[in-house]
Amino acid sequence: xxIKLIISILFIFELSFNLKAQDFHLTQYxxxxxxxxxxxxxxxxxxxxxxxxNAVYRSQWRSMVKKPFTTYGISYDQPYKKFGLGxxxxxxxxxVAKFNTLNFQLSGSYFITDPKKSPHILNVGLQMGxxxxxxxxxxxxxxxxxxNSTGSLNPDISSGExxxxxxxxxxxxxxxIFYKYKDDTKKYAPYLGFSVxxxxxxxxxxxxxxxxxxxxxxxxxxxxxxxxxxxKLTPSVLYMNQAKASDLIIGxxxxxxxxxxxxxxxxxxxxxxxxxxxxxxxxxxxxxxxxRISYDINTSYLHNxxxxxxxxxxxxxxxxxxxxxxxxxxx
Length: 331
Fold this sequence. Notes:
There is one protein chain. 6% of the residues lie in helices and 50% in strands. It has two helices and 16 strands.
């Protein structure tokens, strides 16, 4: 029990203080597009909508710490003439120490091509905003608090640690470009996106020493295939690099039209290389709103600590039309 507790504490510090680690990632990254690429702001890639609201909730590492790591966020965006306008809030909370990162970004994009006149969809995007970081030192246990009489860490023993600063606010900015070929007469529609996060490389250190957040580079590619009138498949690849850390996700998502309806069953299977297998299921109602659930199964050495209890993630996408109610009576 003592060993598992110490491992859990070290694990929290590794994820929360190691500035070489990556930003928080999402399994259903396509369901929260403003966090994937600023150029996707107001860019619905053919979907018939005047605005969209996206929401996400993720919980992980329940078996390693008393309180799981959670991620939750909401975004809004819409096209306006040749622009896309939007914003998102994404919050991440890690474990009992409540390491918290709140990210707020205003997001905008510009349509270089007109998707109504050309099969080539090309956008560039820019985000500017703030991130707020904080933690609660009262919930952290240190090696100096080890009690020999009980064989465990004792919160009543003074740690001897002194934290002058437990929160900070910094400016942040991101850019991106996205291209997709979409011709309704074709059964395929390839796409490619590239984005860079943390252009300003703000310092996220709680001490006087400046430790800058490394830039995160993201490449997102794939192709939509219309197999028939009911079945659509999209193989995809996502690669992210930040300092010495990297992520590579390969997979496929799809939709199957329910007979005599305008609703689809959604499904997907992704693999984060050397990390996790990710299963996705969901429903899309009336070609408009969608809800999905995903579950990550650890395949790395962390499986020894987390067991079969992987991350679970929920996403909701609400697509609206002007002068029409967001929800139909049958929703």
